[in-house]
Design brief:
- By secondary structure, the protein is α/β, with parallel strands linked by helices.
- The protein has helices at residues 9-19, 35-51, 68-79, 93-103, 116-124, 164-171, 174-180, 187-190, 229-243, 262-275, 289-298, 308-323, 345-355, 415-421, and strands at 24-28, 31-34, 59-63, 83-86, 107-111, 152-156, 185-186, 206-212, 223-228, 252-254, 278-281, 303-307, 335-339, 359-363, 372-373, 385-387, 392-396, 399-403, 410-411, 422-423, 426-430, 433-435, 440-443.
- It folds into 2 domains: 10-26 and 33-204, Rossmann fold (3-Layer(aba) Sandwich), CATH 3.40.50; 210-451, ANL, N-terminal domain (Rossmann fold).
- An 11-stranded mixed β-sheet has the order 2-1-11-10-12-13-14-15-16-23-22.
- The two termini are 36 Å apart.
- Mean pLDDT is 84; it is low at 126-149, 174-179 and 450-459.
């Protein structure tokens, strides 16, 4: 993979589509979506955004779990020259509201089960005063001028890509859900638009607005990291330099980390798409270790990127099966990366005994997607990993500063916080992590480091 000639993530995606149009891009509850189908759906969503008179630089909120619609809206938004604003479904409504207030998206794509996060916000905000109606009943709505609306909602059902019976089982009581869910457009109506031709693709230098914690910590309001296409592509190049033997077109990547976090989006969405790999998505198996074990085997997963607690749970599941004298089976894993803190050494050894592959730590922030990694051939026990190629680090008065092409340009419309965090292109990571003489990052407290994956949400 070489992204030097690509201007945006859309260009990276387009190259993979040209190379592997019929290869499976996403596998979701037994449904296979190839690269061409994913690309065409994203183009349709981009066409929908342009038909609603959205302008270059307009923000689009994405409040969904890892489902095909997220990937479609993510790339489609970029094709239209708009900016995705990921919203974490596990955040408390107050934090989601704070992110919305700071970014003011013109449109929010929200899955049916996550609508409760927005319900009170929609009703109370003065700049959201607009009657909500079901677009299937309001046939005149398509003639209205969308540019006059401060915001709109596109409704998504995570079960849309299931088969009929699986869809009913997932929804439990679908009719009750639909009664409580109000929206301006339903997903299928948005995708009825003709695909946007590549000649009409628009470009916005800002690729993503990612929420992060302010310098005051979790008690303060979130800040919004501004990441450009250039920075995200630079990070993909760094990942390719370190993991190319594992993250390739033949890889099958299990995607448990939320794409709404930049570490998850970079390692479990952008990087696999860039090389033409297959991404396997599941909403339920990752919460149940035994089911996750089966999925790793049945789907022949080769790359698994999670957090330390997921690997701990897999080890405990293997223990239980062994105690019950049940066969664990064989795995196809050749790369496992853990974010969100260090794993205990004895747990890592036990994981290797069961799975035959070591766990490599990695670390990232909203301000810098992947900053270090214990990649094969360059790793050190008890560290978060070595700084990615092209990334510099230095300790100043007990604080770690890093500089690299993958760092954000600053916080969205917040010069004060930007000046606190950055100085001359150097990002201040604080005193929780130190740097040794070989450029490996060492956490002072392995269980309490600032990361782009909030551990308490995964308890």
């Amino acid at each position: 993979m070489s992204c030097h000639t690509e201007k945006s993530l859309v260009d990276v995606f387009r190259v993979s589509v040209a190379r592997y149009p019929q290869k499976i891009a996403l596998r979701y509850f037994g449904r296979d979506i190839n690269y061409q189908e994913l690309y065409d759906s994203a183009r349709r969503f981009a066409g929908f955004l342009l038909s609603r008179n959205l302008k270059v630089g307009d923000r689009i909120g994405l409040l969904m779990p890892n489902i095909p619609q997220y990937a479609i809206a993510y790339f489609g938004t970029m094709m239209a020259g708009c900016i995705p604003v990921p919203l974490d479904i596990r955040d408390v409504p107050k934090r989601i509201e704070q992110v919305l207030d700071k970014t003011k998206p013109r449109l929010i794509v929200v899955s049916l089960r996550e609508y409760h996060h927005l319900q009170q916000y929609v009703q109370e905000k003065a700049w959201f005063k607009k009657k909500k109606t079901n677009d299937r009943l309001n046939f005149q709505q398509k003639f209205l001028d969308f540019s006059a609306w401060p915001i709109g909602i596109v409704g998504v059902d995570a079960a849309d890509y299931f088969g009929f019976w699986k869809r009913l089982a997932y929804r439990h009581n679908p009719f009750d859900k639909f009664k409580k869910f109000t929206y301006d457009y339903w997903w299928h109506s948005a995708l009825r638009n003709p695909p946007l031709s590549e000649e009409k693709f628009r470009f916005c230098e800002t690729a993503l607005l990612q929420s992060a914690d302010s310098s005051e910590g979790r008690e303060g309001e979130p800040v919004i990291a501004t990441l450009t296409h250039k920075q995200l592509i630079a990070n993909l190049e760094q990942i390719h330099l370190t993991l190319s033997q594992f993250m390739s077109k033949d890889a099958r990547v299990l995607s448990p980390l939320p794409w709404t976090h930049i570490f998850g989006a970079t390692t479990c969405l952008n990087a696999p798409i860039a090389v033409g790999a297959t991404i396997v998505i599941s909403l339920k198996e990752i919460r149940f270790p035994i089911a996750l074990l089966r999925m790793l085997q049945e789907e022949k997963i080769t790359v698994f990127i999670g957090i330390n607690k997921m690997f701990d749970a897999l080890v405990m599941a293997c223990r239980d099966l062994k105690n019950k004298e049940m066969e664990i089976g064989k795995f196809n894993l050749n790369l496992c990366v853990s974010g969100g803190g260090l794993m205990r050494a004895e747990r890592k050894r036990e994981f290797f005994e069961h799975f035959g592959v070591p766990v490599s730590e990695g670390h990232g922030l909203s301000e810098a997607p992947v900053i270090c990694l214990n990649w094969p051939g360059s790793s050190k026990e008890g560290t978060l990993g070595k700084l990615m190629p092209g990334t510099e680090g230095m300790m100043v008065d007990g604080n770690l500063f890093i500089r690299g092409e993958q760092l954000m340009v600053g916080y969205y419309k917040d010069d004060e916080e930007t000046n606190k965090a950055m100085n001359g292109g150097w990002l201040n990571l604080g005193g929780d992590i130190s740097l040794d003489g070989e450029n490996f990052l060492i956490p002072k407290d392995p269980q309490h480091i600032r990361t782009c994956i909030a551990e308490e949400k995964n308890n």
